[in-house]
């Protein structure tokens, strides 16, 4: 840890998180806060997807399952058992991570493209389960009463608390990505991403690492899901398992440069700002999927290294500072 | 008892159509190791072509097959040049992402134009009655047409010179190039054929069930399962895999809610892959 403190990148993350937390506080800017909350959510989802996609080279089309399940567990605990927010979030994170470990041990025996196809199946399976699961309201979902915001000091205050928690989750995601990348575990994952057979021969415990990273990449998105749906006070299967959010996390990862910490975060920020613009503009409101699709195609075809690939090649020195 | 029997027969009929729906996917997969994630969208394109041709031009539903075959082929060749050509030979994940991107664009345009409303094409054909059960004529005709199209594809691959070059390219692209086969053109034609097959199956499915812009995903998922069951690029295998899937659905639907069938199929997909890790595929590859 002390060696981490001497690295400039550690402080760059700290600075970014502080800026996020403080920006809307000045002038009490609520609309800026809402926009930054979505930025923080996208950065969280994309950074954790990047652990699978960028490090281990496994495409996970179903990363949204973690977010949705986390949301469901949290909202359900708050609604049916009147749990406070914090323990519900922790149970959501731990529970979804545990489930991911069990799923992962099964489907991670599949390699490459087959794994990617199986993750599509995971979305279908989880969504079918939730739609038929009566304690969670089936396809109608769960509504929370306004009472839930009382312990957080009323709705207006609660929204600020949720915002700061989301920014904290974003910060943890960035540090997690960074810590894993500089660890032996991360080195093993990168080796798996390069050549899984060679990595196994050189002694990387590939199946254990893959299942572990799948489970780890579920933890913070589940908590983010809990926060997000607690804030909406409403959850239903079509929102919780919205495939387009999964997709956007992939687009963001490729846009910023898969396997990098900075690129994915910057990519998520830029993409979410662009999306916000498109959604509010009358011309593009219906074409959001088209825009993300076209963007993804252009990146995959012409800039497979993404934003950071470009930055690294133009300014090689940045590689030493920006992970 | 007769209910289950009837359900199984209908499962076989629908299964043949599933087999056709998977055929285009497995052909492209087998020939160039590219998983075409636009397949579902192309099936939906076939459905909407059927809808437009029957409602706007008043065509007989089955008369929509030839124009969809030609249009699908052209779209497929365009798809090859846009999203697949640069990806052949690169890691398979890249083509997965590039076809996925095109799929997003297609689905995005589709939902912007048609929304997610349910569309329906009425087909009135006399059915065959057995006791208290009637097998709809549309199901029988769709199954027969699916089998005919599969047979035509089989003959094309086995007997014609172009079909043989498709198999040669699937077997070993470098060797095919060495003996003078224009591999790029063959790859483009294969994608054209794959998409045309997707469109044709879309037309046939459109005569059986109501559909939305998003229906393609379910059939694409079934296509993965069929590919795993039937092997790569093999039209007969795809048909058999489709029938197996249809049988499973027919046997299962009387007992579990419909929303679970996809889940059961996907569990099967994962189990088959785990039981034969890369095995049935690798031995099948190039054995078109």
Give a quick precis of the structure.
The complex is a heterodimer of chains A (323) and B (288). With 323 residues, chain A is mainly α.
Task: Provide the structure class of chain B.
Answer: mainly alpha
**What structural class results from the helix and strand content of chain A?**
mainly alpha
Largest sheet of chain B: 2 strands, antiparallel
Tally of DSSP β-strands of chain B: 2
Strand residue percentage of chain A: under 5%
Low-confidence runs of at least 5 consecutive residues of chain B? 278-288
Number of strands of chain A: 2
How much helicity do the residues of chain A have?
Answer: over 70%
Layout: helices, strands, pairs:
The complex is a heterodimer of chains A (323) and B (288).
Chain A: H1 2-5, H2 8-22, H3 30-55, H4 64-81, H5 85-107, H6 112-131, E1 142-143, H7 154-181, H8 184-194, H9 196-201, H10 206-232, E2 234-235, H11 237-240, H12 243-256, H13 261-280, H14 288-302, H15 306-314, H16 318-321
Antiparallel strand pairs in A: 1-2
Chain B: H1 2-32, H2 39-56, H3 65-84, H4 92-114, E1 128-130, E2 133-135, H5 137-159, H6 161-171, H7 173-178, H8 183-208, H9 216-230, H10 235-252, H11 261-275, H12 279-284
Antiparallel strand pairs in B: 1-2
Keywords:
heterodimer; A: 323 residues; mainly alpha; two-stranded antiparallel sheet; B: 288 residues; 12 helices; 2 strands; 74% helix; globular; disordered C terminus
């Amino acid at each position: 840890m002390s060696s981490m403190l001497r690295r400039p990148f550690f402080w760059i993350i700290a600075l970014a998180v502080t800026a996020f937390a403080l920006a809307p506080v000045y002038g009490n800017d609520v609309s800026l806060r809402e926009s930054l909350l979505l930025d923080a959510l996208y950065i969280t989802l994309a950074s954790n997807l990047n652990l699978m996609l960028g490090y281990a080279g496994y495409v996970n089309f179903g990363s949204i399952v973690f977010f949705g399940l986390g949301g469901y567990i949290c909202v359900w605990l708050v609604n049916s058992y009147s749990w406070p927010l914090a323990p519900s979030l922790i149970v959501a994170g731990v529970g979804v991570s545990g489930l991911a470990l069990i799923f992962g041990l099964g489907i991670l025996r599949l390699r490459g493209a087959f794994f990617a196809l199986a993750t599509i199946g995971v979305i279908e399976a989880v969504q079918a389960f939730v739609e038929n699961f009566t304690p969670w309201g089936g396809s109608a979902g769960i509504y929370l009463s306004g009472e839930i915001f009382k312990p957080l000091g009323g709705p207006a205050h609660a929204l600020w608390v949720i915002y700061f928690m989301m920014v904290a989750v974003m910060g943890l995601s960035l540090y997690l990505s960074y810590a894993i990348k500089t660890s032996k575990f991360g080195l093993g994952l990168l080796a798996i991403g390069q050549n899984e057979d060679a990595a196994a021969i050189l002694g990387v415990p590939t199946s254990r690492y893959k299942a572990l990273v799948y489970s780890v990449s579920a933890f913070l998105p589940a908590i983010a899901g809990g926060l997000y749906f607690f804030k909406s006070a409403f959850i239903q299967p079509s929102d919780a398992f919205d495939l387009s959010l999964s997709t956007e996390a992939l687009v963001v990862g490729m846009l910023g440069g898969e396997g990098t910490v900075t690129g994915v975060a910057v990519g998520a920020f830029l993409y979410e700002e662009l999306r916000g613009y498109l959604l509010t503009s009358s011309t593009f409101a219906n074409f959001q999927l088209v825009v993300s699709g076209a963007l993804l195609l252009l990146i995959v075809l012409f800039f497979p290294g993404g934003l950071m690939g470009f930055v690294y090649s133009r300014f090689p020195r940045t590689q030493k500072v920006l992970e | 008892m007769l209910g289950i029997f009837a359900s199984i027969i209908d499962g076989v009929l629908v299964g043949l159509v599933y087999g056709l729906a998977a055929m285009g996917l497995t052909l492209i997969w087998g020939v160039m190791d590219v998983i075409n994630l636009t397949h579902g969208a192309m099936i939906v394109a076939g459905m909407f072509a059927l809808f437009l041709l029957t409602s706007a031009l008043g065509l007989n539903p089955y008369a929509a097959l030839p124009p969809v075959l030609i249009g699908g082929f052209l779209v497929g060749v365009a798809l090859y040049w846009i999203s697949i050509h640069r990806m052949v030979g690169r890691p398979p994940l890249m083509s997965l992402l590039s076809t996925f991107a095109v799929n997003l664009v297609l689905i995005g345009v589709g939902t912007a134009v048609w929304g997610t409303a349910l569309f329906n094409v009425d087909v009135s054909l006399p059915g065959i009655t057995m006791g208290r059960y009637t097998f709809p004529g549309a199901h029988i005709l769709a199954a027969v047409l699916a089998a005919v199209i599969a047979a035509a594809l089989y003959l094309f691959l086995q007997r014609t010179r172009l079909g043989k070059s498709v198999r040669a390219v699937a077997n070993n692209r470098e060797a095919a190039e060495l003996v003078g086969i224009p591999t790029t053109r063959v790859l483009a034609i294969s994608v054209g054929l794959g998409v045309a097959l997707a469109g044709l199956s879309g037309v046939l499915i459109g005569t059986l069930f109501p559909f939305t812009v998003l229906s393609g995903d379910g059939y694409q998922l079934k296509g993965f399962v069929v590919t795993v069951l039937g092997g790569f690029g093999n039209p007969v295998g795809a048909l058999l895999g489709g029938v197996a899937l249809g049988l499973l659905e027919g046997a299962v639907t009387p007992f579990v809610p419909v929303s679970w069938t996809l889940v059961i199929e996907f569990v099967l997909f994962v189990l088959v892959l785990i039981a034969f890790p890369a095995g049935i595929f690798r031995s099948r590859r190039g054995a078109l």
